[in-house]
Write a structure and sequence with these properties.
5-stranded antiparallel sheet; Phosphatase 2c, domain 1; PPM-type phosphatase domain-containing protein; alpha+beta
C-alpha cells in the first residue's frame, strides 16, 4: 500500500486543514477546520479552526494498535474532546457562532474492507480496476454553500467587482446558516456538542477490485466553470488528480485562484482555500 498526502495553506493566516496518518492502525484522513464568526485566538495566535483540526489530528494519530473501537466511536470521543477544549477556553457551547468546528473524512484500511467516517464536506472517493469512480460520501454543506454562492453570483451580475464588498453582502446569510449546523435542514460538522454525533456518517465498503482511495477537503474542488458538462465536481477532481498528481494539480489550482483575486471569474468566498488530500494506492 502506498500513501501520498499534501496540505497547503490558502490565503488565510493559518492552515485550518490537517492530514491524519496513523500507519499502526492504518487510519488516514483529512480535516477541514472552520473558525468561529466570533473572533478567538489561541496562545500562539491560532484560530479556532486551526485548534480544532490540530486537536482532531492528534487524537486520531495517537490511537494505539490495540484499540478496537470503530471509527464512529473514535469520532464521537474526538468530538467530545473538542467540546471540552472549547469549554476550557471559555467558549459557550450553546452559542453556535462561537464554536470551533471541523469537517472530516477518515478511513481505516483492513484486508477485506475499508471502514470510513465522515462529517461536513470532506469527501472520500474510490477507484476500481475497471476505471469506475465511486463517491463514498456526500457533501453535506453543498446546498448551504449554494445559497450563499447564489447571492455572490447575483451581486457580480449587478456589477459588484470587489471581493470585500461581495463578502459583506453574503456574510448575513453565512451567519444565519451557522444556526443550521447539525440540524435536519442544515449540515453536519463536528463542533463539540452532542448533536454533532447524530449526523456523523459511518460505514464500510468491501475491497473487491478497489484500487485507489482519494480523501480531500473542499479547497481542492475543480473550478465550476471548467468542468465538462456531464461531470460532477468530484469526478472532475479525481480525473484531474489522477492525470496530474496531487502536488501539480494543487499548484495549478492555486495559480488559477491567484489569477482571479476578486473571486469574480470563479465565484468563491476567499481567494484560495486551504487544500488537503490523501491518496491511497491499495495492494
Amino acid at each position: 500500500m502506498r500513501v501520498q498526502s499534501l496540505s497547503i495553506q490558502g490565503s488565510g493566516v493559518w492552515n485550518e486543514d490537517a492530514v491524519i496518518q496513523n500507519d499502526v492502525q492504518r487510519i488516514y484522513g483529512v480535516i477541514d477546520g472552520a473558525t468561529s464568526l466570533v473572533p478567538f485566538r489561541g496562545p500562539k495566535g491560532e484560530t479556532g479552526g486551526r485548534l480544532a483540526s490540530e486537536l482532531l489530528k492528534r487524537f486520531f494519530e495517537q490511537v494505539p494498535a490495540d484499540d478496537t473501537r470503530d471509527l464512529e466511536q473514535l469520532t464521537r470521543e474526538a468530538n467530545r474532546m473538542l467540546g471540552l477544549e472549547m469549554q476550557s477556553n471559555g467558549i459557550p457551547l450553546d452559542e453556535k457562532d462561537q464554536l470551533w468546528t471541523a469537517g472530516l473524512a477518515v478511513v481505516r484500511i483492513t484486508d477485506h474492507y475499508v471502514e470510513y467516517v465522515q462529517s461536513g464536506d470532506c469527501m472520500i472517493m474510490g477507484a476500481y480496476t475497471d476505471g469506475a469512480v465511486r463517491m463514498v460520501t456526500k457533501d453535506h454543506v453543498a446546498h448551504i454553500d449554494s445559497e450563499s454562492k447564489q447571492i455572490w453570483k447575483e451581486a457580480i451580475g449587478s456589477g459588484v467587482r470587489s471581493k470585500d464588498k461581495l463578502w459583506e453582502m453574503v456574510k448575513p446569510r453565512i451567519l444565519k446558516n451557522k444556526e443550521k449546523m447539525n440540524t435536519p435542514q442544515g449540515y453536519s460538522v463536528l463542533n463539540g456538542r452532542s448533536d454533532a454525533e447524530l449526523f456523523i456518517e459511518y460505514g464500510k465498503i468491501n475491497r473487491i477490485r478497489l484500487e485507489e482511495l482519494l480523501l480531500h477537503t473542499d479547497g481542492l474542488y475543480y473550478p465550476e466553470g471548467l468542468m465538462e458538462e456531464l461531470q460532477s465536481p468530484e469526478e472532475a477532481l479525481f480525473r484531474q488528480m489522477k492525470t496530474s498528481g496531487l502536488t501539480d494539480y494543487a499548484q495549478w489550482l492555486v495559480n488559477l485562484e491567484n489569477s482571479d483575486p476578486e473571486c469574480i471569474e470563479y465565484p468563491r468566498f476567499k481567494i484560495s482555500d486551504d487544500k488537503s488530500a490523501v491518496w491511497i494506492e491499495l495492494d
